[in-house]
Amino acid sequence: MPRRRTQPQQSVRYAATEHDGRHQVVDQLHGYALSSHATHAAAEDVVRELTVSPTAAIEA
Question: How far is the CA of 8 from the CAs of 5, 11, 58, in angstroms?
Answer without folding.
Answer: 9, 9, 27
